[in-house]
Design a protein that fits this description.
It contains 12 helices and 6 strands. It is an alpha/beta fold and about 240 residues long. Strand 4, helix 11 and strand 5 form a beta-alpha-beta unit.
Length: about 240
Amino acid sequence: MPTYQAVLFDFFGTLSRSVQRGAAHRSTAELLGCPPSTLVDVLDRTFYERACGRLGNAEATLRWVCEQAGVRPSDDAVRSAVASRHRAIRADTRLREEAVPTLAALRRLGLRTGVISDCTHELPAFLPQLPIDPLLDVRVFSVQVGSCKPDPALYQAACRRLDLAPADCLYVGDGGSQELTGAERAGMTAVRLAAPDLAGHMVFNADAGWIGPVLRSLDEVVDLVRAAAVPAGPQLPAACGSR
């Protein structure tokens, strides 16, 4: 088993608890003059188009969403809705209790840490306000890179910023966006977090066939890294034991 130099995490559903759209999203729909169910439908089916960042900034992206929903709100309404959506997504985001202790423990072990997230414009805006931010060495957001997992570009971006090879990195995620197979294809070791709360997690393009390692709690990452750092026992010379 390799000795890792960095651990890279998915954000939503991994460092955060299970995500579901809360009541605050209704205010965004009302500002846009759009039925909440219509807005949710458009958001669900266009996640990757929005998360790749190719539609422009948050305001331009929301205008495009309005076109898909068949509504034409005023400029003031769109600006208000952008702020409302930011608040709604922030309200949906609850860090796992183990997130800060796990990141802190990894850094005490001398490892570097980071986030690779498929996300829209909101996460890069509010992540600096979260208590995990000072514990991260690198932050890679799909909306800024211009592609989503499992595209190797996201994993490669993290490695470049850390000046590490993919083989030096452990990747931890809940399995959305086929992120685990993507990390493996990029040359990393990947493990799936299958915490109990993820049964109701909002996820797209899941790694449904994942047969690799599975963790039940985020703090198990520290145990895994420690085990990987333990040197193997002495090996017998090849001639001994061959008959």
